[in-house]
Structure formats: structure tokens, C-alpha cells
Write a structure and sequence with these properties.
Layout: H1 9-39, H2 43-47, H3 50-68, H4 76-97, H5 102-129, H6 133-152, E1 159-169, H7 173-181, H8 195-199, E2 205-210, E3 218-223, E4 227-237, E5 241-247, H9 252-257, E6 268-279, E7 285-295, H10 300-332
Antiparallel strand pairs: 1-7, 2-3, 3-4, 4-5, 5-6, 6-7
Length: 333
């Protein structure tokens, strides 16, 4: 009798089932960690921890690969594909169901991809060596707890960062000064294109109103999406320098950008700023905008890179508005 054909679909289905199980388990763990951190008093600090940004994605991707490739026979492409798929699922789920802001998700993606790859290929290497399986199994259970416990004992650095942008304005300091002090009815077409505001959708300034001139005055900045905050004047030198201290009297900025990134919170404090107007020999003026903030995390170097991009884009746009208005006034004379 002829042999019955063999059904080779079962092993394939089993492997697919293991992969789905690995991703499902990882997503359940990620959601559980998110809910625990959100409910904790130190939740926002935890979202900016080295554990959450580096160890956690490495662990999740290692777990998926461990469950999805039990025999260690899958190709390199499988291990390469796990981190971007996991990050994509996390971003989609966080935006669609958890209401996370774009800033948090964009900042999360690159570092999760990098450490996810590290976790995935650590599993691949261990599986191929097969020389210490018991220790490897134990590490998947205890590594996250151990890493979190160790990090909690490390003092958190407080780094003061100064962010500066400049622009050359074809106008005198006296012509620029009124627009450095206040601006009303800033149109959507004013300013310049920036990645943070034009692509990521960060809000743009709509007006800055000063209640009275001089030290002690309060400039209220109004941005799109119903955002407002205060800049309390600490230095007033007409045509030369205007300085202020930020005061975030409501949560409008945090609510729109990201609930975990408060501008005056546990790991970020946007502190002071100033304009400096420097006349140049050719009759133009260098207008410099400086913002000082304090970063309080174990990943300050990574946070500084994002601050340079996001806050730098905001500064560039503000300077462009002042430049455009001052040059129109200069040409009209």
C-alpha cells in the first residue's frame, strides 16, 4: 500500500503558535508594568529610568525569542524582526488604547529597538552555546527585578543644561526689542519648518503678552492647543537683554505633549531663559535665545540629545517669528 502523505503543517503551526505566545506574554508583562508604574507615586520617574528604557525592552525581546525559538534553529532574520515588531505593537497599543503622547513614544522607539536587539541576540548566542542553560533560564526570571533594585540604589544625577540658538536679524536692537518682549496674533504661517512641530505636531506659539514692563512683569505665553504658561521677568535691559524664570501654573503643556514629561516635574525642570541682542558692525543684530533646564534621570545623556532636538526646534521657531516681524518693521521705515 502506498504510504500516506505526511502532514508537515503541524510543526509550522506549532512554531507560529510559540511566536504568538511569546509576543502575547511580552505584551501582558509590558501592560502590567505600565499599570504598576502609572499607579505608583514614582511612576513618572520610573518611565525615565535606565531599567525601563534599556533593561526592560532587552528582557521582553529575549523572552519572545526564548519562547518563539525553543530549539535555537530559527534564522538571524527572526531575531532581527522581533524588536521592531514589538516596538510597533507597543506604540500602536499605547497610542490607541492608553492615550500616550507622541513625544514619549518617539523618544522610546530608538532606545527600545537598540536594547531589544541586544536582548534578542543574547538569547540566540546562549541557545547556540547551550553551555549554561540553568543560569540562562534563571536570568529571564530575575534580571528585571535585579536591575530595578540595583538602579534604585544609584544616586540620580542632577544635570543643568543650557540650550542656545541664535539668528542674524536685519534690523537694529531697538527695532527687534518690541518683538522680543511680546507678540500678538502669531499666524500659522509664521515661523519656520521644524521636525518637532511640523512633523511630530508639537504646539506652536500663538501670542506672548506682557502685563507690565520691567523686572517683576509677567509674560504669558499662549500656544496652540489651549496651552499657556508664564515667564516672570528677572532682567530688563531694553535693546540688550530680557531674562525670565518659567512658571507652569497649570498642566496644559504636559497634558497635550505627554503626561509623563512635566516641564516642572520630578525628572525635568525647565528653569530660566533669556534673549540677548548683540549689534554687529554691518548694522544687523545677533538675537540669541537661551533656555536652561535641569535633567534628573539616570539617562541624562539620552534625554539631553532629545532636549537638543525638541527644545532646539521650539527655539528656532520662536526666533524665526521675531526675525520676520522685526525685518518687516525695518523694511517699512
Amino acid at each position: 500500500m502506498p504510504a500516506e502523505p505526511q502532514d508537515d503543517r503541524a510543526p509550522v503551526s506549532l512554531l507560529k503558535g510559540r511566536i504568538i505566545a511569546g509576543f502575547s506574554l511580552a505584551l501582558v508583562i509590558a501592560l502590567s508594568a505600565y499599570l504598576l508604574m502609572s499607579a505608583s507615586r514614582a511612576g513618572n520617574q520610573a518611565f525615565a529610568s535606565l531599567w525601563f528604557l534599556a533593561v526592560f525592552p532587552a528582557y521582553l525581546c529575549a523572552l519572545i525569542c526564548y519562547v518563539g525559538d525553543p530549539a535555537g534553529t530559527r534564522s538571524r532574520n527572526f531575531y532581527v524582526s522581533v524588536p521592531p515588531i514589538l516596538v510597533g505593537l507597543v506604540i500602536f497599543g499605547s497610542a490607541a488604547f492608553l492615550g500616550e503622547g507622541i513625544i514619549c513614544l518617539v523618544m522610546l522607539s530608538p532606545i527600545w529597538l537598540i536594547f531589544g536587539l541586544i536582548g534578542a541576540f543574547s538569547v540566540r548566542r546562549m541557545r547556540r552555546r547551550r553551555d549554561d542553560a540553568a543560569s540562562f533560564h534563571a536570568s529571564l526570571l530575575f534580571l528585571p527585578l535585579l536591575a530595578g533594585s540595583v538602579e534604585s540604589q544609584i544616586p540620580v544625577p542632577h544635570d543643568t543644561v543650557t540650550l542656545t540658538r541664535s539668528v542674524i536679524v536685519n534690523a537694529s536692537p531697538a527695532e527687534i526689542w518690541p518683538y522680543a518682549v511680546s507678540n500678538t496674533h502669531i499666524g500659522k504661517d509664521e515661523g519656520r519648518w521644524t521636525f518637532s512641530q511640523s512633523v511630530l505636531g508639537l504646539p506652536r506659539p500663538r501670542a506672548t503678552v506682557l502685563d507690565r514692563p520691567g523686572v517683576g512683569g509677567v509674560r504669558t505665553a499662549y500656544w496652540s492647543e489651549g496651552i499657556d504658561f508664564q515667564e516672570r521677568v528677572t532682567a530688563w535691559q531694553p535693546g540688550r537683554r530680557l531674562a525670565w524664570r518659567f512658571a507652569f501654573t497649570n498642566s496644559s503643556l504636559q497634558h497635550h505633549t505627554d503626561e509623563h514629561i512635566a516641564p516642572d516635574g520630578p525628572f525635568l525642570k525647565i528653569d530660566t531663559g533669556d534673549y540677548r541682542l548683540t549689534p554687529l558692525p554691518d548694522g544687523t543684530t545677533r538675537l540669541t535665545l537661551t533656555t536652561n533646564y535641569v535633567a534628573i534621570t539616570h539617562v541624562n545623556l539620552y534625554a539631553h540629545w532629545w532636549g537638543e532636538l525638541l527644545l532646539g526646534d521650539i527655539q528656532d521657531n520662536v526666533l524665526a517669528v521675531v526675525k520676520q516681524r522685526a525685518e518687516v518693521r525695518h523694511e517699512a521705515r
